């Protein structure tokens, strides 16, 4: 399977006349499925182009296409009782929650690119610093009060084809795992770094189905994770063999210590995508909470307080005990997950974050001058992230047109599509400025 960098480069080369690799479309879909809960800025935006045939003209369009292929849209703001009154779009998050929205630099002083992971608290955001695309080299903490960052850990290079994945924050450690997705091998290794800073610790490695990680977590002495096949496993940070946590058959890790009866990465499988969560289990004390979905609801997902599902094309919420059932404005945008125990992504226009506890919504994402939706990203944590970010100065587009390269014309002619004199237009998405804006859900005031 190709890396996202390779896919982006292939798209860029295709715009310049190179043939599109046969596995390109399949590779894009596979990578999107794996990361749909983590990032809604498109890998196509990394290349800035995507080729589409319209009649006799090959038009290359760029921009931030949500990898879930769902519409990126917004929810209407207002009190919970007004949830059925859709608005064209929500007010901007910075106006709804001014204490929770700030900016941060796109790059560190040495040129490493910052990618948000999640919130460490109301004023601290965990970042990775990348030497190249998705090659995290450091963990840093950005303080939104002082507007300064500090290095928590420096990650040793692990060679070509190795990619750190899905970071997760615990009370004592920050954990992640790494894979080599392009060699066809089922393999992963696990790492932790002290939350207060220090040298990373390589915990161990696994192969086979245990290496197909769904979600990870970390305790004071163990890495914990669920493979895609289910069950919850753990490995001592001090060293040792993996073992299955007793009583976790048919469960997947949600966010430690909670597990549930549906996987975290359910997008690739329609069965799981539409399945309703019916159980939430505390793996520390054994508490089991049964959940009864309302009639007609699919894809129900629950935190410790709230549940979110769909009914037709509408989103619906309820308390985990089945009370306070409401139809929400618009439909879900992206996967059905609850972030920060009470927030959901909804859509009826531009993207917005909806507070299930208060009924307020804040629009996110960069926009063009005419108000159309642009790019946005979500933190790359394993459990649902608490940060969303976008370009602080909007997005701009630039279109250039010219004769279609001979190789492209020949391929399209063989397919019976355009005439030999077809032209190619390339629309590039440009994100001006050196700052991103970020919404920290941990800084949103408590409900009530």
What are the defining features of this structure?
448 residues, mainly beta, Methylamine Dehydrogenase, Chain H, 4-stranded mixed beta sheet, 4-stranded antiparallel beta sheet, 32 strands, 10% helix, 38% strand, disordered N terminus
Which SSEs are present, and which pair or pack?
Layout: H1 4-15, H2 24-35, H3 43-47, E1 51-54, E2 57-60, H4 93-96, E3 101-105, E4 113-121, E5 124-132, E6 135-143, E7 148-154, E8 163-169, E9 173-179, E10 187-194, E11 201-207, E12 213-218, E13 222-227, E14 233-236, E15 243-244, E16 252-255, E17 258-260, H5 270-274, E18 279-282, E19 288-290, E20 298-302, E21 306-311, E22 314-319, E23 326-327, E24 331-332, E25 343-347, E26 351-355, E27 361-363, E28 377-378, E29 387-391, E30 396-403, H6 406-414, E31 423-430, E32 435-440
Brief overview:
Keywords: Membrane, Transmembrane, Transmembrane helix. The chain is mainly beta and 448 residues long.
User: Helix fraction?
Assistant: 10-25%
Specify the number of helices: 6
Secondary-structure-based class equals: mainly beta
- What is the tally of beta strands? 32
Rg, rounded, reads 22 Å
Overall geometry comes to: globular
CATH class of the largest domain: Mainly Beta
User: How would you write the strand order of the largest sheet?
Assistant: 1-2-31-30
What CATH architecture of the largest domain do you see? 7 Propeller
CATH topology of the largest domain: Methylamine Dehydrogenase, Chain H
Low-confidence stretches: 1-87
From the N-terminal CA to the C-terminal CA, the straight-line distance is: 48 Å
Transmembrane segments: 41-60
Region (Disordered): 11-39, 65-92
Protein name: WD40 repeat domain-containing protein
Biased composition (Low complexity): 65-80
